[in-house]
Prior knowledge:
The chain is mostly beta strands. Helices cover 0% and strands 39% of the residues. It has strands at residues 5-6, 21-26, 29-35, 44-49, 52-58, 78-85, 95-99, 102-108. The strands form two sheets. Strands 1-6-5-4 form a four-stranded antiparallel sheet, with no helix packed on it. A hairpin with a 2-residue loop joins β7 (95-99) and β8 (102-108). The two termini are 34 Å apart.
Amino acid sequence: MSNAIDKTPDTPAPAGLPPPVNVVEDAHGITLHADLPGVPKDKLSLQVDGDKLTIEGELSLPLPEGMASLHADLSLPRYRRVFTLSKELDTEKVAAELVNGVLTLRIPKAAHAQPRKIEIQIA
């Protein structure tokens, strides 16, 4: 399944920075690792619509009281990235976890695309 996921060129939404994402495929599905530093769980949105997976997150980098930022490497306050998923993936069983600014998404293959063993009958 070499086309499990296509990195669809984003038509950038207003003020959206595409986060770096690693995609790992194995016999049972795909795992995506997206770097979303500064995005808390309550400001993260994951959506599957048909064959499109959309990752959106809003940065939340609070400054201590009385301090102001003089320089910021990230000038856009949002992350946004859209992927086109293969029909071989089961989008009903997506699992997501956010730990230390890294989003991990696991999308298994659909049952019809899973490897299976075929028994040989003796006649």
